[in-house]
Each structure stands twice: as C-alpha cells, then as structure tokens.
Write a structure and sequence with these properties.
The chain has 324 residues and is α/β, with parallel strands linked by helices. It is built from 12 helices and 13 strands.
Length: 324
C-alpha cells in the first residue's frame, strides 16, 4: 500500500442525502470520514436513517445529493472498483436453506474475487465441524456466524457489519468482538451498526449517533460520554432532609432517592462524603458513575419527532443487493 493510498480515507460522506417518494428524506446532509484501520459505529433508533446511509456507502443506491466515497471511489458509479474490496454482512443473509454450510461457502466463493479458503473463514467464525449441516438446521446465532464468514471470504479492506451479533449468546458475542478487533488490527476498516450500545462502546474507535436523518453527536466513546453529566445516587435516612445537603450539590429527590448530576464527579463526590462524615450520615445504596453511552443515546432518542413527519419506508437490502 502506497503512502498516498494510506492517506485516502476508507469511507467519506459529504453532504450525503437520500430521499424517497412522498417527499420523505431519510438522510439529511450528513458528513463524516472513517480513516483506514478504524472501527466506526453508526448508531440510531429505528428510522433514524442509518440503514439508508449504509446502503449508499455500499453502493446499493445513489444519493439524492452529496457524495459518498469508499476507498477513493464512488461506490455506486464505480461499483466494479469497490465491490471486490469490501465485505457486507446484512441483517439477514437469505441463503438457500437446503444447502449445507460448505455448499453455501463454495457458492459464495465462486462470486468472490481471490476468496480465502473456506475452512479459514469458517474457523475464524467458530463454524468448524458444521460444514455438512444444512442452513435450515443452524441456530440463529450460527446463521449470523455464517453471514460473517461469507463477508470475510474476499479478505475485505472495508467491512460493513449490520447488527453482527444479533442472536448470539454472550460467548458468541465476545468471540465476534475479538474477531472484529483482530480484523481492525490487521488493517481492515469496519463500519458497524448495532442496537447493542455496550457493543459500540466496547468496539468502536469512533461513533456517530443519528436522529431524524442527521448526525447529532459524534466522537470517540469517551468524548461522547464526557459531554454528559455524571451522576451520584443514594438514599438518606428518614430523619435527614435533602435540604441539609451542601448547597453546591445540585440534588433532586424522587421518593426518597437522591440524585445529583455533576460535571465534576470526583470533586462533588468528595464534598458529599466529607459532609456525610462530618454529619454522621450513612448514605445507603451509594452509586457514583460517569455518564454512559446508553444515557447519551436515550437522551437523543427522547427528542420528539414533528407530528407531521412521515414514517420511513421499509426496503429490503437483500433485494437491492440482488438488483445490482
């Protein structure tokens, strides 16, 4: 890989828009860049526009306005230059149910440029020993592993993962996380969509949260959570009113439970503990923690949609893929 190639971002979106019939706009002028060798998570509630965005980046549709580039190429108009270098794991693979795992991999490998050995892809995704099992006999988690194995067949430089761990148990989920990290460490760029916020917080180097077709928050997981206040929660003894708390602590009481939101967790916690010691007050159920990605996400999701906003149309990504 040349220095110029390394300098070219793996994924670029600039003023990207996607509209549907009926004047509905699912993606409203978003811009972001994903450097090579990074895991980037795109989050959002259902209907936020993330699937429509990913479809544009995968080259399944043309944008209404703006530009998308993958590995320096327009993924829709220069599909032949992009498709052999990317891997796509859809939410549902839609493979013939009567084929065995091995037959499915061979079929997919026949459509893949420079496909890696089947046993290598199956071994990486924990499917060794399941080669002769028919797809219809696989568990939901095993089908997701097969979807991932097929996405890895072409040794992709950019890997699109759409809800990759849905249906997996806790061990399968963590095994997939380790595989994704290993791919990133080997130079693969990963764009991930997931409803598991712990997954995004654990895996992503950077992330963006979409709402109503726009990116409303982005950065590293630490940067996103640092923008939210931390919280301290506890219960006071019945004979101690909340009014006795130090004035600098912005406390709210709900059915005897006290919550303090703070931008200075360490300082305010020290003030609280010092007050409790001096006043000989026991703080029951004391819990102090920094803001979580879940809190940031839920705050954004709670923003109300305008009453006249039309619902997002549902489209089959597998059908779009087949049509290309």
């Amino acid at each position: 890989m040349t220095n110029a190639t390394r300098a070219t971002p793996a994924i670029e979106a600039e003023g990207l828009r996607r509209g549907y019939s009926g004047d509905f706009e699912a993606v409203r002028g978003i811009s972001f860049t994903v450097p090579r060798g990074e895991i980037f998570a795109l989050l959002g509630t259902n209907g936020a526009g993330k699937t429509s965005t990913v479809e544009l980046l995968e080259g399944l549709a043309a944008p209404s306005a703006g530009a998308a580039r993958v590995l320096g190429h327009d993924p829709y108009r220069e599909r032949s230059a992009v498709r052999p270098r990317i891997g796509v794991m859809l939410q549902e693979g839609g493979f013939p149910s009567d084929l065995t795992v091995a037959e499915t991999v061979r079929m997919w490998a026949g459509c893949t440029t420079h496909a890696r050995p089947a046993d290598e892809a199956l071994g990486a995704t924990g499917l060794t020993g399941r080669e002769d099992v028919r797809v219809k006999q696989l568990s939901g988690g095993e089908r997701r592993r097969l979807d991932l194995a097929l996405a890895l067949l072409g040794r992709p430089e950019v890997l699109f993962l759409d809800e990759p761990t849905t249906g997996l148990d806790a061990k399968g989920r963590r095994d997939t996380w380790e595989l994704v990290r290993a791919l990133r460490d080997g130079g693969t760029t990963v764009l991930l969509t997931t409803h598991y916020l712990e997954e995004a917080e654990t895996l992503a180097d950077r992330l963006a949260i979409m709402h109503r077709g726009q990116i409303v928050l982005s950065g590293t997981p630490a940067e996103v959570t640092a923008a939210r206040p931390a919280r301290i929660r506890f219960t006071l003894p019945p004979e101690v009113p909340a009014a006795r708390l130090p004035l600098r602590l912005r406390a709210a009481e709900d059915d005897g439970r006290i919550e303090i939101r703070t931008e200075s967790l360490q300082d305010d916690l020290a003030v609280l503990l010092g007050w409790a010691r001096d006043e000989d007050v026991r703080l029951e159920g004391l819990d102090a923690r920094s803001a979580s990605l879940e809190e940031a996400f839920l705050d954004i999701a709670a923003q109300t949609l305008p009453s006249d906003a039309p619902a997002a149309p549902e489209a089959s990504r597998a059908a779009l893929e087949a049509s290309r």
